[in-house]
Amino acid sequence: MTEQADWSGKAVLVSGGARGQGLSHALAFARRGADVVLLDAPAPLATVPYPVSTEEELEAARVTVSEAGGTEVLAYAADVRDPEAVRVAIDHAASRLGGIDVTIANAGVFSFARTTWELSPQEWRECSDTILLGSWAVARAAIPHMLGRAGANLVFIGSVSAHKGIAATGHYVAAKHGVVGLMRTLAVELAPHGIRANMVSPTAARTLMATNPAMAKCVEYQVAGGTNMSNLLDVELLEPEDVTEAVLWITSPGARYVTGDVLKVDAGFTAR
Ligand SMILES: NC(=O)c1ccc[n+]([C@@H]2O[C@H](COP(=O)([O-])OP(=O)(O)OC[C@H]3O[C@@H](n4cnc5c(N)ncnc54)[C@H](O)[C@@H]3O)[C@@H](O)[C@H]2O)c1
Asked: SUPFAM superfamilies from the xrefs (predicted)?
């Protein structure tokens, strides 16, 4: 067994790090000594039925993560749908920290319609651009700062929606499936550089994305009573920290020969 990784002297970038799972990941790395870069506070997303994080919330997260680790914690208001803004932020962070060791492409939004053919183009774009274009934008900006750094790796936060069809959410499902292809391609391209790329795919977790009141409607829109929509294990919502456990392992030296792979933390959701 590899001992718990010591992340001191390493820089960890988390998109969507102001709250929820991203904040949990950021806190865990800070507690283990890492420098942390948070990217969040996007431009308005009119079709998302719950609020995304504000600049004030991002700043509060920066303070919380700083207090947890005593390392350098940088926060940037940047919308992952804007690849140039993401590049400017990540270039700045990398110049401050000397490079990036771990990139966690975590920012995401969720919306739904009664059926996928009733989604509006704006619903499609806002969700898909955040998840798919945004994951690429974060990777695109971070990778040049990861080259040549021993143990560097990327993690894309997927979902059960990256691995099966789920009614009312074809844009989210398609975008998450797309991130699987992006992750696998980067694993191929980055292997000669000794850099790994993987995905961690959670089932529903206790964050605003899943606990906001609009979700009840999405559950109602599931076909056949949502029979393909449950965890096998007796848990309704994961805690963000359950996902962080998987992120910590897959980014650690203990997973040094794991690349192009998916680690599901889905309580068996996708097993049937
Ligand atoms: N919560 C769940 O049930 C669940 C299940 C499976 C997968 N996921 C995935 O987990 C990841 C984290 O989500 P969460 O559960 O912590 O939700 P969350 O809504 O609490 O956090 C998402 C964060 O991403 C930020 N964000 C959204 N769009 C952005 C953009 N365009 N640019 C920059 N930042 C943006 C938000 O401001 C927010 O801080 C997402 O990729 C999501 O798809 C969530």
From this structure: NAD(P)-binding Rossmann-fold domains
Report how many domains make up the chain. Answer: 1
As a whole number, mean pLDDT of residues 101-106 equals 98
Hey, whose CA ends up nearest to atom 3 of ligand 1? 204
pLDDT at residue 5, as a whole number: 77
Euclidean distance between CA atoms 70 and 60, whole angstroms: 15
Strand partners, 13: 37, 103
Domain limits for position 236: 11-271
Q: Is the CB of 128 under 6 A from ligand 1?
A: no
Ligand 1 binding pocket includes 153 (Cβ within 6 Å): no
Residue 4 maps to a domain: no
Average pLDDT over residues 135-155: 98
The residue whose CA has the least distance to atom 19 of ligand 1 is 209
Q: Is 148 helix (H, G, I), strand (E, B) or coil?
A: coil
Helix (H, G, I), strand (E, B) or coil at 157: strand
Round to whole Å and give the CA distance between 67 and 79: 25
